[in-house]
Amino acid sequence: MTPDHNDLWFLPLGGTGEIGMNLNLYGHDGQWLMVDCGVTFPKPGRIAADGTVHHRGEPPVQMADPAFIADRREQLAGLVITHAHEDHVGAVPYLWPMLQCPVYTSRFTAEILRRKLAEFDLLHRVPIIEVNTGEEKQIGPFSVQWLALTHSIPDPNALMIRTPQGNIFHSGDWKLDDQPLVGHGYSPRTFTDLAEEGVAAMVCDSTNATVKGHSLSEAALHKGLLDAVRSAEGRVVVTCFGSNIARLHTLAGIARETGRYMGLLGRSLINMSGAAKAAGIWDRADELINPSHLGYLPREEVLAVATGSQGEPRTALRRLAMGNHPDFELEAGDTVIFSARAIPGNEEAIAALISRLKELGVRVITAEDAGVPIHASGHPAQEELETMYRWVKPNLAIPVHGEMEHMETNADIARACGVPRTLVGRDGDLFMIRPVPGIRRQVVETGRLGWEKQELVRVY
């Protein structure tokens, strides 16, 4: 199955009909362009009495099976990574040996990717081409331009993919945040200009399509987090997604305001902050102390930021809850703040973790029970989707990055905004954009691979 010069195709192998492990292919004139290459994690199974999560015998890291394109890798022009979240970049070290193509991405994402590749002894084998926002690269028959948008991680980019048969706007993960605090912002003109040029199809994030209104700005969280930290008497531990550098920036400012010292607990947090410093997007005023010093400070001077907001095993917050973290122990009167919401499927693990913390006498504040906002989503709610469809004015909308309910709601929004046609499908469906729009269902076999005992195994 090879597209000819009249064809313009979209073929998702992962991330359409599900949230996670994004792997997308665009086909034209005998070649393919891959956009994103991410991982997912199995849903937890039984929760033991001590809060330990027991998985159902599945590999702990999973990703889309790339067999279709791996069998045609001579037709693969390149891989574009839109941003540095695990569900978009995390599978590259596992799958690149099967693909062996150049990788194009922004500076911050490249910093994260290099750290991952080094762990697999691939750092000097994978050609990484850093691209600036606004820049355009010719990748095989595809002319790809990086467009600035905002998300819950620095330097996310949407893509304008241009071909002689038509243009595709690939949104990546995004929101419209007028005060993202860290990294680039966005300009409405960028997207209204696309409409003037003409957009054959818009492939769009559906994660929060069922959420009414507009997502919160990162800047809106300062008051809620400041109030929560200021009201605490003992140590404060904040758990959030490690990739949210803007959240770390807010917390560092709050540490200064409240006379506390801030340290990071957890490998992913330390890795992300290091990449932000290397990419030049870490505020020099945001000073961190060595986490090993936190245990020697008076309790009222400690502000630790820890991994583990989803109740994952072996993360820093889990170890603190079990009393086996090397840097300090939580005590009655300390406070843990969940500056994150549960990813669907993680609710039971988070509840077990919170129960364990409360058994220790720790005060727990979650995003759900906080009186003012302490967490902001990185994905567009309905008002933002409406705005983007009206800016871009695509001829065709293809919702992705969501379960069926999210994608169907996204399609409804697109139609209400005047988009002439929508196509809703799932992994393995071939979306034909040119010459005639339509879907061929399940033309490619899809599945999952898992990483277990230092090798890839088929999960299903």
TrEMBL record:
Extent of the signal sequence: none
Pfam families hit by this protein: Lactamase_B, RMMBL, RNase_J_b_CASP
InterPro entries to which the protein is assigned, alphabetical: Metallo-B-lactamas, RibonucZ/Hydroxyglut_hydro, RMMBL, RNase_J_2, RNase_J_b_CASP
Domain called Metallo-beta-lactamase: residue spans: 20-214
SUPFAM superfamilies referenced in this protein's UniProt entry, alphabetically: Metallo-hydrolase/oxidoreductase
Gene Ontology terms, MF aspect: exonuclease activity; metal ion binding; RNA binding
Keyword Zinc tagged: yes
Keywords carried by this UniProt record: Exonuclease, Hydrolase, Metal-binding, Nuclease, RNA-binding, Zinc
Name this protein carries in UniProt: Ribonuclease J
Annotated organism of origin: Marinobacter pelagius
